[in-house]
Amino acid sequence: MADMTDVGAEGGDGIRTFPFPVDLSVLGVGMQVGQMGTGRTWHAADAPLERVHRIDFHIVMLFDEGPVRHMIDFAEYEANAGDVMWIRPGQVHRFSRTGDYRGTVLTMQPGFLPRATVEATGLYRYDLPPLLHPDADRLTALRSALVQLQREYEDTTTLPLSLHTAVLRHSLTAFLLRLAHLAASSAEAARQQGDTTFTLFRDAVEKGFATNHSVSAYADQLGYSRRTLVRAVRAATGLTPKGFIDKRVILEAKRLLAHTDMTIGRVGVAVGFPDAANFSKFFHQHTEVTPAAFRAEIR
């Protein structure tokens, strides 16, 4: 990657944004591709890579080694050998120790590719995951396309500049089409997994909400981490897992208060609150009325 220290400006949030340094790319074209690693010139020694910053260009890193931790939009990602990380313009990010990065890095300037290619390759699909895990066949194809792109990038003698740039655009497009397909497929797989995770969680809550209000207990029961449950439930409902559980408990409490003559204490026990005072406090926090007031109003 190129030097990003001498140019750039702070945004409204105080985070500096650095432009693509065309003057440091081969023949000044709007892209660079090369190797990461100690002793290789893939970024300037004094570049602020380990501080939070933005860029106005794309970075694609294909890792040969790992693990490497990298922050993107304030979320931490861990990349391993064979993984691909795609950082888009405007995203806040931060490198970890740059000596740990091994593999191939591609940077490209907005505007280097025509609009039709930009749309076809989803260059600005910020909804797609930045960290990708290609299977063996897709990884082989990506590596092959990237090797060909690097070969064309470094071949500055066999073609005039206009043709050299045209060939680069075609080679870059071929690589990005493969990368975009991988990103879209990964997003769909994650969505389906999220749907499955949420469905299992929802069913578990339906069976156990009267006695179990613990997110950790459901996570252990289903074999998921709390973080996985949070992602899946939030994607499906916009709620946290705890919020989803509480909502189901309140619904059941309202049903019992409205349609039975059970005492408020008995209703509390039925939804997992042996202590009537705790139940009344919980109900009031979520509805802004007491159980007794709700029953009186509904009837």
From TrEMBL:
Keywords from the UniProt entry: DNA-binding, Transcription, Transcription regulation
InterPro entries: AraC-bd, Homeodomain-like_sf, HTH-like, HTH_AraC, RmlC-like_jellyroll
Protein name: AraC family transcriptional regulator
Superkingdom of this protein's organism: Bacteria
Entry GO MF terms: DNA-binding transcription factor activity; sequence-specific DNA binding
SMART domains per the UniProt record, alphabetical: HTH_ARAC (SM00342)
Limits of the HTH araC/xylS-type domain: 199-297
Transmembrane stretches, start-end: none
